[in-house]
Amino acid sequence: MKVNEKREKKLMRGSLCVRKALPHDLPLMAVMVQQIEGMRDIITEKHVWHLSDKAIKNVYMFYIMFTCWGCLYFGSAKDPFYDSEEYRGDGGDGTGYWVYETQEDIEEKARAELWREELIEEIEQKVGGLRELEEAVTKMPATDFQGSFGRSLLSLRRDQVDSTTVVAGSSSHHNHHEPSNMEVELDSFQRQVAEKFIDLNASSNDLLSLEWIGKLLDSFLCCQEEFRAIVFNHRSQISKSPMDRLISDYFERSIKALDVCNAIRDGIEQIRQWEKLADIVISALDSHRPIGEGQLRRAKKALIDLAIGMLDEKDHPSGTNLAHRNRSFGRVKESHHRSIGHFRSLSWSVSRSWSASKQLQALANNLATPRPNDVVASNGLAVPVYTMTSVMLFVMWVLVAAIPCQDRGLQVNFFVPRHFQWAAPVMSLHDKIVEESKRRDRKNCCGLLKEIDMIEKTSRLMNELIDSIHFPLNDQKEIEVKQRVDELVQVREALKNGLDPFERKVREVFHRIVRSRTESLDSL
């Protein structure tokens, strides 16, 4: 009996039983039952459901409909953060990027302020020795030599002023009124400004070229230095009314000019990106190698990028969506709101909301000729303040007109009365630039700079030529391509040789304005 029982247990261990616990149309897999001595039975079951194609389709349809319903339901519900009154009240736009953009704007302003403070501190250290020398001069006895020595420190036209004074003194017995040193100095300043702009009018054939704008900046620097000398020589009268109000207004406007200089540096960086694209075209169509289809495709792509980058974003908001430089967080987002026209330096100098047009309007706001009583009360010093303010406004207006800027515009009410010596040449240049901006082929351009016009025309002709090329390339087409490449090389060389000196002059204008403001405020 015991032997038979053991045999039955062994048979049950390896037995395979098939059972149907569900309806007939849902068969189950086999269930293997294995009994282990001394342990409870372990039963493993696997079920296979056989679904038809229609049933599978219904399952997927239900899943899709449920997902769509969830998106619509939760999308219509109010978000506790993005739809809150606090978030919307702070200017939130409903996206998570707004928080980062606000932080970036704060960082930009902080960097700009820190940079300005460091620059002012550096300038103060450099002019420290000059101040000590000036203090020593003021402690000297009041002699004619002291006035000449003080002017020798800061005036660029010392010899002219001294010679004019000598001539006036020698002929005093022929005149009823002998002009004072101040009158001679102020008249000399007016003549200098007039001479500078007359020279710029004489070279108007190169109007708005890098070389011409460089001459304009040199003229501004000379006028700025002469004006700084006038302020220093008559600083005792600057602190009195109404000069304290006029000079304070001038320095407030000069701060706005600093922002324009920063924006111009960004525009120069943008032009450098166009120069790199022109280099790609020149490299692809090198005259020392045969031209193939791959080279033409590469040149074509670079020309398209160049054409898109040179579009004016104000008139073509949807056509300039190519690329942008990453900001401080290093994130690439919202590329549809950037363009190749916004290549900037690694430290952004102006915020996204900054507008060149509005900045010029702020510079020109309430700028009027000095009133007669102010001229009399200031002994004529109100006139050079107005002159320097007008010259600064004109120079900044020319820079914005020529160089690509953020939200650039030329709609500034600029007018100088004809009784000023420098009014006629300045207004003549102003009218010429306005006429240039109204030309049909310059209306939608991103800048009136002559080199920009040249590279735009050359790249457009090159693009049209490439579109007309069919392979195999004949000799005539190959010669035309080489000619266009040579023209593009000339334009590229003009930009390469002119941008660096131009940028240095813009930087020098910035530093000179800061230094003049710092020294003048310290001397008051």
UniProtKB/TrEMBL annotation:
Bilayer-spanning residue ranges: 59-76
Gene Ontology cellular component annotations, sorted alphabetically: membrane
Annotated localization: Membrane
Residues in coiled coil: none
Annotated keywords: Membrane, Transmembrane, Transmembrane helix
Membrane topology term: Single-pass membrane protein
Superkingdom of the source species: Eukaryota
Record keyword DNA-binding present: no
Family of this protein: Belongs to the ROH1 family.
UniProt protein name: Uncharacterized protein
UniProt organism field: Arabidopsis arenosa
